[in-house]
Amino acid sequence: MQDTINGAMLREMLLFGAARVAANKQSINDLNVFPVPDGDTGTNMCLTIQTAATELKAKNPQTIDEVMKITANAMLRGARGNSGVILSLLFRGISKDLKGIESVDGAAFASAMQEGVAAAYNAVMKPAEGTILTVSRLAADAAMRAAGENNSVEYILEAALRQGEITLKDTVNMNPVLKRAGVVDAGGKGFLCILEGMLASLRGEEMPTVDEDAETREKADFAGLGDQDITFTFDTVFIVRKTRQCDLRPFREYLDSIGDSIVVSEGDDMFKVHVHTDTPGDALNMAQQYGTLEVAKIENMRIQQEDMAAGRKTISADQLEDEEAEDAPAPTPSEPEERKPFGFLAVCAGDGLAEVFRDMGVDGVISGGQTMNPSTESILKEIERTNADTVFVLPNNKNIVMAAQQCVGLTDREIVVIPTSTVPQGISAMMAVDLDCGDAKAIERAMLDAAKNVATAQITYAARDSDFDGNDIHEGDFLALLDGKLFGVDKSISVLLEKLADAANERGAEFVNVFYGEDVDEAEANVDAACFTEKLPNAEVSVLSGGQPVYYYIISFE
Fold it and tell me: What pLDDT score does 29 carry?
């Protein structure tokens, strides 16, 4: 039995813990219903501890102090979501308690676990039972008791895991949301995965792997959890670099007045905030009274929950950025060009729509849209890449407008967000751009006026049974939306298109653009769109490949 550990051993234990979480990432996601049912706890915990694993591999520290300092700092910066932030706090407390220690025995490790729990509880404003906090607290208590019996790191880890497993099984009875879904806490499961990996390292086992059997693993009933379980819409995480030493208690109290699931983790020269709120902009603005905003991420949890309920894969801002990074061509060195006066960015999903925006002169296209909301950070990165003094941003989705607006003031560029809520509004706004006028305000007014004059229709499908606005909607029905409101429900897309063509005719539409999505081929689209040509013989009707997900058709008429 391994009684003590040194820095090299602790580094290996943490790498094993990170590997264990990575292997179990999806099974942890499938348990995630609390604090909100958005199915990303496994992803968030994996990304959080992987930041530390990457640093540990690159720097190869050999002392306890160096290992824990690197781990704590990396996890604080890399923490994603509520579970990731709490995980980073647990390890920050452990790091604090092990500072200056060359060799760790069971008692020292158990003490550090308790210090980690204390740090996490101190940062969470309203701790809830039946979570990672409960599991880690009782596991640490068991470790302390075990250290009195056998002062061995391996022995106390075994004891912590035994108690942790007992507590985890009981979380389903501690939390009403977990009980309704019939699952244990996802964050608690993730924490125990790390302990399992650390113990496996001590025992000399191989790097942990898990057989992910999607049919047999425990999985939450997301369809049974409506968005009534989500009190606030936006999952908001940001880092602020301190410009002075300050008391964060007033800021915590302010966050409590505008949201919940609040975690504030504080380092020597910065602090990181996690909050669920309807007004992320207010949280970010208030935070800047305490320092300089360094980075922010905002995600719509209601959209994520809808995707989980419908069995669709959710796409987080972090995943979106990873995909963009993989697809991005390698940069080629070149002489810096002089900035032009105006630049334009558009958010959309679908190669066809992206090509339309590029043809109209946008400098960059940010991949995103319904169910794929890019973060403030990803929008800001694209703004920084745009070689212009003033950058106009077209969010093209009402759930992305706020994230785009948070970029204002975070760069030396002047940023103008045109609050377009649909792709056709964005296209219409771009058509109104007159660069020769040379005046940003005039361009902004023209874009706003143009966006108001276009009507947008969208056809999608119902992910589940529901009753909306007196309409009895069944899973698999086709839905038509007009300017964001439910226009019609039918078993046939053709019927809905006929009704939309009538609506366009009643409005006297002169131009109609039909963008067909990734699930529709060109021949099918031409047949479906024929009703617009028939009902509006004097209008200019165009059928274009949009390639967009979610929506079979996006139609504009003006």
Answer: 81
CA distance 343 to 387: 7
Give the span between the Cα atoms of 349 and 334, in whole angstroms.
30
Token pair for 199 = 């113990």
Short-list 513, 514, 516, 509, CA closest to 539: 509
Spatial distance between the Cα atoms of 188 and 195, rounded to a whole number of angstroms: 11
Single out the residue of 287, 267, 268 nearest to residue 277, CA to CA: 287
Question: How much of the chain exceeds pLDDT 70, in percent?
Answer: 84
pLDDT one-digit tens code per residue, 408-461: 877 888 999 999 989 999 999 999 999 888 899 999 999 999 999 899 999 988
DSSP state of 264: E
Classify residue 203 by its DSSP letter: T
Dihedral (C-alpha) 440, 444, 450, 456: value to the nearest 10 degrees? 130
Q: Taking Cα atoms as reference points, which of 99, 91, 137, 109 lies closest to residue 3?
A: 109
In terms of Cα–Cα distance, which of 89, 56, 85 is closest to 70?
56
Q: How many CB atoms lie within 10 A of CB 490?
A: 16
Contact residues for 130 (Cβ-Cβ < 8 A; gap 6+): 34, 170, 171, 172, 173, 174, 175, 178, 185
DSSP secondary structure string for all residues of 505-534: HHTT-SEEEEEE-TTS-HHHHHHHHHHHHH
Rounded Cα distance between 373 and 549, Å, is 13
Q: Is 30 helix (H, G, I), strand (E, B) or coil?
A: coil
The token pair at 85 is 């932030």
Return d(Cα 409, Cα 406) in angstroms, integer.
Answer: 8
Segments in 261-362 forming alpha helices (H)? 280-287, 301-309, 317-327, 351-359
| pTM of the shown model | 0.47
Are the beta carbons of 2 and 103 closer than 8 angstroms?
no
Neighbours of 74 (CB within 10 A): 22
Written as six digits, the tokens of 278 are 């309807």
- Residue 464's CB is within 10 A of a number of other CB atoms, namely 14
Give pLDDT tens digits for 499-533.
Answer: 999 999 999 999 999 999 888 899 999 999 999 99
